[in-house]
Structures are given as C-alpha cells and as structure tokens.
Amino acid sequence: DAGVTQSPTHLIKTRGQQVTLRCSPISGHKSVSWYQQVLGQGPQFIFQYYEKEERGRGNFPDRFSARQFPNYSSELNVNALLLGDSALYLCASSLGQENTEAFFGQGTRLTVV
Amino acid sequence: EDQVTQSPEALRLQEGESSSLNCSYTVSGLRGLFWYRQDPGKGPEFLFTLYSAGEEKEKERLKATLTKKESFLHITAPKPEDSATYLCAVQAGGGATNKLIFGTGTLLAVQP
After folding, report:
1. Phi (first) and psi of residue A83, to 5 degrees
2. Window 2-31 of B, Cβ < 8 Å to A
3. Does residue B27 carry a pLDDT above 80?
C-alpha cells in the first residue's frame, strides 16, 4: 500500500517567487492537511481540506492557499516567497474530516534564497 | 490557548538504559493525544493515539501513557535505532477539524 506521497522532495526558490507543492493521500483517505515545520520546531497547522472544501485554517498569511481535487490529492501554493518561508512542508492524510489518526508524507524541503 | 510542552528537549542514553519522555498539555477539551517519531529530514511516523486518562499503549520497546495533564513515552532498553526526535501532539476542542497541535519534540540519542 502506498503511503502519503509528496512532490517535489526538495525545492529552491528566490524571494518573491511562487511555489506549488503537491500531495497524494493514502488510498481511501479523504482528508488532507498541510503543516509547516521550521528547523527545531514542531509542525504548525496550515490548512485542512475534506471533500474538496477547506475545513480548517491556521495562522498563516493569505499568501498561503490550497485546494483539493476530486481524487483527494491536494496542492499548497505560496506566493511572494519570503526567506522565512524556508521550511519542511508536510502533508498529512486522514480517513475522514474529524478522524484523529493522521499519517504524514516525507515532506517537501523548501529553501528560499 | 491550547499548548503542548515536551521535556527534556534532548536526551542522551546508553544502549539498554531505560527512560521516559514527558508531554504536558493544556487544552480546551482533549479529543486525542498522539506520539510520532521523526527521523532527520523525514516526515513524522505515527506511533500511538491515546484518548482518555488511564489509557496505555505499547509497541516493541515503547509504551505510552496518559493522565489528565500529561503523557509519558517510556522507552525500555533502547537501541541505537531508537535515536530520533519524538513529537507529541493533541487534538482539542469541538471544531470540525482534525488539526494537530505539536510540541517542539524531544531529540533522543542512544549510544551503543
């Protein structure tokens, strides 16, 4: 069984650019959440999507947006990149909207220079 | 404000030396407490979910316990391959979301 897959694994962008990160959840899981993890910290919640609708949003600026597709895969977009956006971006897959167990992908390491 | 605090920040053990990691939390209505293991540069790996005070779960050399204010991750006779960062997270409140609130983790190093 394939787990949560994220692409790309690494990315280098310049300040001011835009980036799109992708996530495919575990087969049968309908909820996808995005987290940002900076070095030395725990992951911080960005968004949750369930059945293609936003179900939760963390304390992140409007430069961050996401969407979920009919096949439950998801994209996270970040506009006008700042140096402080450099982090490991994690996607988590859950069976349902409030289902408690979340399984993470390997992450996308974003470096903004 | 919901908060999760983990201690110690770092722990160095000799192989076979048992110890415990602590996760204390203050939340408005605990729905679940989670333990994850994270290797450098990788995503967190799910270990346990605990839902109510008094609950315990075990997996190989790891045992997680839960009280009304904190959780412990007990590591019995650790091996070098147990070296990793251990993250604690909670789900709280009655909202229709599965948002996890994480602590900053405990970095465990087990020396042979």
Report:
1. -55, -35
2. 4, 31
3. yes
Closest listed residue to residue A111, CA positions, set A80, A81, A87? A87
Q: How far is A25 from chain B (nearest CA, A)?
A: 14
Residues of B in contact with A109 (CB under 8 A): 41
Which structure tokens are listed for A11? Answer: 């990315």
Q: According to the 3-state scheme, what is the secondary structure of chain B?
A: CCEEEEECCEEEEECCCCEEEEEEEECCCEEEEEEEEECCCCCCEEEEEECCCCCEEEECCEEEEECCCEEEEEECCCCHHHCEEEEEEEEECCCCCCCCEECCCEEEEEEC
Contacts of A13 by beta carbon, 8 Å cutoff, 6+ apart: A19, A81, A110, A111, A112, A113
Q: Would you give the distance in Å from CA B105 to the centre of its chain?
A: 8
Long-range contacts of A57-64 (CB under 8 A, 24+ apart): A58/B99, A60/A36
Q: Does A43 touch chain B (CB under 8 A)?
A: yes
The tens digit of pLDDT for each residue in A22-57 reads: 999 999 999 999 999 999 999 999 999 998 999 999
Q: Which residues pair with B36 in a beta bridge?
A: B46, B87
